[in-house]
Amino acid sequence: MSDSSERTRLLVDVITDPVCPWCYVGLHGFLRARDQLKDEFSVLPRLRAYQLNPDTPEEGVDRKSYYEKKFPDTEKREEMAHQLRAAAIGAGFQFDPAKPTRLPNTLLAHQLIRLSHYDGAQERVGLALFAAYWDDGRDIDDVDTLVAIAESAGMDGENARAILSNATNRNDVRQEAEAFRATGVSAVPTYVVNERHGFTGALPPGRMADALREAAKLTSGAH
Q1: Which end of the chain offers a freer environment for a tag, N or C, measured as fewer CB atoms within 10 Å?
Q2: What confidence tens digit (pLDDT) does each residue in 78-102 have?
Q3: Closest by alpha carbon to 30, among 17, 18, 47?
Q4: CA separation (Å) from 32 to 4, 41, 75?
């Protein structure tokens, strides 16, 4: 394995939302791709806020009803679920995309993700949030739940609780999510490499590794 000082540094902004099932697949695929690239690059992920459903009320909505209205074709919904399960297996894990019963507003979850970056716990918190929602059906818009996730990732629970109740911090996170939408991000997961070149999609690990290699060439000016 190459010394870390000899490897090219790739800062990868992973624009994501915990209630997006493809983001769950994409995060696992990205982490497996990073493992494949460990001898070539020092890949530093940074999870960034995006809300697929920014108008979701604070109390959340019934997820089944929401998706039945958004995708009225039953066969299409079942096919999407099948594709998600297959993609997850390709990314090295399994989950049931039908398990969560509520669709929460994810602004509080994004506040925790942002805080965890400064605590050096973002990867642990990100994975824990996705697992809490998709695997355990937990309410990731509940402060006590989020504080417990923070503590399980080694963060200070009381500091997390204070940040989650901070209106200024919440507005900053909301503006970050809105800014990505304003710059043209319309689907997640989206990956932006070295703040210059982006691509979208929950790619399988091998294709994800290739996309990151290509992005590295583009951001370095190589051809």
Answers
A1: C
A2: 999 999 999 999 999 999 999 999 9
A3: 47
A4: 18, 13, 31
